[in-house]
């Protein structure tokens, strides 16, 4: 027997496997956690950059507003008039008032322009949106400007040319609260550097800019500042300058070497040469993910502890059976192998392999067994329901219930003897058919090959199907037949038996499906599917209209052989007219067969005259809506078939010109007959009265009525020229009922009366 040491060894192997399985997801989750943390921090940094860029855009927008405001004032007529005012003129109140009113809306609508003003040099006058100051010193005192003396303020702001310049090299405050401001100065007129007449000054509240930047910095416990291209910090006094080092080579600020716990982000202005910067804390940036770290650590510890406990339990439980097996194996058997576990593994593996081989052999025989049971069912070889269900269960035939249908699919071909190559092709075709059927009727169908060119299928259901469900099944099978031709270029015919209600009735449904299979007429015929119908099938055997006769009729029509068609139709009528006691039934079936023959002829021949086809379909529709009268309907169908034959004859033998010539000959011969009608001409040329004018117009481009009138007019003109016959006589000879109708037609055709026409001809002679 094996020692306890060997048993413990098995336990350790199981434990090691479980611990390895536990460690892999923990390691992968640890890796994913670190990647996620980095991604979150990166997104936070990107968010800060976006916020800084948005703040920059807003500040640039304000700067553009200032420049637009200044530009509008330079074009202001009121400002221009006051700027050109002679200092000697003392009365300038009205002009000053107009300027105040011009710029007043700017101060009311935009707080940026609240402290804007225009200084007129020659008048020492300041005009703001609020009021006007006749001396600049008054404005200086009223606004409580600090940071520059009055003289420095006048010198820097008013006594030198400034072009869109921000004064940032000195601190300047305004008002009682001494709010820091940034002055923007533009001398006007633009371009007059030597002698500017006025200065437009906009005192921008520094908070308008710092508030936007502080939103970025304060979010992550940092600070913001703005510096110009020289590295001078314009505003941002709260920034700790010891944290920053200005690199003159690149023109940018950088963090000091000991400030690795911070991040510096910058963005340059699009409108001026300022750079907006923010210093944010890395610790604060990653503060949002600290709880994720804590939660992840707790989950990892809990998972590890629970995983170890589960591993111990499963290792013990799974190693226990192996320990028992090792306990009953003798040493002599075990010493043949170095590892007792390998010994067990090899023996159990061999047992499993033997079992699998046996199972595979059974599975290989299963299709043969199923096919055998299927053949016995459709062949009617099973006598009891109990025996049938026993065989079905043994062969695992997938039947859903005792209700269903049997159908047959036959491959269309004209091969009498199959060689090996053809058998292989047929086998492939049968596989395709079975696969398509399985796809359509998933779970409800069982298929089997019963002949080299036939596949039988069994549809089963737990309960009787309704009429609507039967129609759906039939429609699905018809779609299946069309799909095979379109998708796989495989032509098949199908037959479906009536629904069986008992397992033993499968044989009867199979025989019905076999009988309902359509005949194969031609390799070019359209695939079809037929469901068994008792009345239809019995009637087919009772009237004389075989498939051979139908094929002869179709061939004769297609060849345009009128005499043969008449002979075949007469034979069909003669062969069936003596069945007086079944005349109605036989007649109805013959009429239906002839209608089907007409439709098949039309469907196979696209070269037929479309007008004729439409006319025939229209007449068939009219016949279907009336009560059947055998003799009359037979003659109507006979006439349609002869028209088709004539059309084939005209198209294939002589073409349309021969028919047109016959029509013209008939008109030239009978035009003098006042009773000449389309019906008469149609009967002469053996055509439909409806088709006659259509065909004539297609070939000649002239309406047949116009042609008849032209023939009559030409004859009348000749008679007027060559004879002295009376107008009435010529009218009758030309085919008109009276002289009045002749004169009216003659004048419509020539524009003059017959007598005037004769006089004109006599004069020309």
UniProtKB/TrEMBL annotation:
UniProt entry keywords in alphabetical sequence: DNA-binding, Membrane, Transcription, Transcription regulation, Transmembrane, Transmembrane helix
Segments crossing the lipid bilayer: 15-33, 295-316
Name under which the protein is recorded: HTH araC/xylS-type domain-containing protein
InterPro entries xref list: Homeodomain-like_sf, HTH_AraC, HTH_AraC-typ_CS
PANTHER family, per database record: ARAC-FAMILY TRANSCRIPTIONAL REGULATOR, HTH-TYPE TRANSCRIPTIONAL REGULATOR EXSA
Native source organism of the sequence: Lederbergia galactosidilytica
GO molecular function: DNA-binding transcription factor activity; sequence-specific DNA binding
Domain HTH araC/xylS-type: start-end pairs: 661-760
Pfam families listed in its UniProt record: HTH_18 (PF12833)
């Amino acid at each position: 027997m094996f020692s306890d040491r060997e048993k413990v060894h098995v336990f350790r192997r199981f434990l090691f496997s479980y611990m390895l399985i536990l460690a892999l997801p923990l390691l992968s989750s640890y890796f994913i956690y670190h990647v996620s943390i980095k991604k979150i921090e990166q997104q936070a940094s990107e968010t800060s950059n976006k916020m800084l860029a948005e703040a920059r855009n807003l500040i640039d927008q304000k700067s553009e507003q200032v420049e637009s405001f200044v530009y509008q004032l330079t074009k202001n007529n009121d400002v221009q008039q006051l700027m050109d005012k002679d200092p000697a003129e003392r009365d300038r109140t009205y002009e000053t008032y107009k300027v105040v009113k011009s710029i007043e809306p700017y101060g009311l609508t935009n707080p940026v322009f609240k402290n804007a003003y225009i200084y007129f040099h020659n008048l020492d006058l300041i005009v703001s949106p609020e009021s006007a100051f006749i001396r600049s010193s008054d404005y200086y005192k009223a606004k409580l400007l600090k940071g520059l003396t009055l003289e420095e303020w006048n010198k820097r702001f008013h006594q030198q040319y400034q072009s869109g310049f921000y004064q940032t090299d000195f601190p300047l405050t305004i008002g009682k609260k001494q709010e820091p401001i940034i002055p923007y100065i533009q001398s006007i007129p633009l371009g007059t550097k030597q002698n500017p007449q006025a200065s437009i000054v906009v005192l921008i509240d520094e908070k308008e800019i710092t508030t936007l930047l502080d939103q970025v910095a304060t979010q992550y416990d940092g600070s913001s500042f703005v510096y110009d291209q020289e590295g001078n910090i314009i505003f941002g006094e709260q920034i700790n300058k010891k944290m920053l080092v200005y690199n003159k080579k690149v023109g940018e600020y950088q963090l000091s070497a000991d400030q690795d716990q911070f991040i510096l982000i910058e963005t340059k202005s699009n409108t001026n040469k300022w750079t907006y910067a923010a210093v944010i804390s890395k610790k604060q940036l990653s503060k949002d993910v600290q709880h994720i770290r804590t939660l992840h650590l707790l989950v990892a510890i809990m998972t590890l502890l629970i995983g170890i406990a589960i591993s111990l339990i499963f290792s013990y439980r799974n190693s226990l059976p192996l320990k028992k097996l090792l306990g009953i194996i003798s040493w002599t058997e075990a010493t043949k192998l170095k590892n007792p576990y390998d010994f067990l593994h090899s023996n159990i593996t061999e047992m499993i392999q033997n079992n699998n081989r046996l199972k595979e052999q059974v599975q290989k025989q299963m299709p043969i067994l199923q096919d055998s049971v299927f053949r016995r069912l459709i062949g009617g070889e099973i006598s009891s329901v109990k025996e049938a269900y026993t065989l079905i269960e043994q062969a695992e035939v997938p039947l859903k219930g005792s209700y269903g249908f049997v159908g047959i699919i036959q491959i269309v071909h004209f091969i009498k003897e199959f060689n090996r190559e053809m058998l292989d092709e047929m086998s492939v075709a049968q596989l395709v058919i079975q696969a398509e059927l399985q796809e359509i009727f998933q779970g409800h169908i069982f298929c089997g090959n019963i002949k080299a060119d036939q596949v039988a299928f069994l549809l089963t259901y737990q309960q009787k199907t309704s009429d609507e469900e039967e129609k759906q099944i039939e429609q699905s099978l018809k779609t299946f037949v069309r799909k095979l031709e379109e998708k796989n270029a495989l032509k098949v015919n199908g037959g479906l038996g009536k629904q069986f209600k008992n397992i033993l009735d499968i044989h009867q449904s199979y025989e019905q499906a076999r009988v309902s299979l359509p005949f194969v007429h031609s390799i070019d015929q359209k695939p079809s599917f037929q469901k068994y119908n008792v009345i239809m099938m019995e009637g087919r055997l009772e009237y004389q209209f075989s498939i051979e006769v139908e094929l002869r009729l179709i061939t004769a029509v297609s060849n345009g052989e009128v005499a043969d068609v008449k002979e075949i139709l007469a034979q069909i009528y003669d062969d069936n007219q003596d069945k007086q006691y079944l005349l109605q039934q036989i007649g109805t079936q013959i009429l239906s067969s002839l209608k089907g023959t007409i439709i098949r002829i039309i469907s196979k021949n696209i070269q037929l005259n479309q007008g004729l086809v439409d006319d025939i379909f229209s007449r068939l529709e009219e016949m279907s809506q009336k009560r059947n009268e055998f003799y009359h309907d037979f003659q109507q169908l006979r006439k349609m078939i002869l028209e088709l034959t004539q059309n084939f004859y005209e198209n294939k033998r002589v073409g349309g010109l021969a028919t047109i010539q016959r029509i013209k000959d008939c008109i030239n011969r009978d035009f003098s007959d006042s009773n000449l009608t389309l019906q008469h001409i149609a009967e002469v040329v053996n055509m439909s009265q409806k088709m006659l004018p259509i065909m004539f117009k297609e070939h000649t481009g002239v309406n047949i009525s116009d042609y008849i009138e032209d023939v009559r007019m030409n004859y009348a003109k000749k008679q007027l020229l060559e004879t002295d016959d009376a107008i009435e006589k010529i009218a009758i000879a030309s085919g008109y009922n009276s002289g009045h109708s002749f004169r009216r037609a003659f004048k419509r055709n020539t524009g003059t009366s017959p007598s005037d026409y004769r006089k004109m001809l006599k004069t020309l002679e």
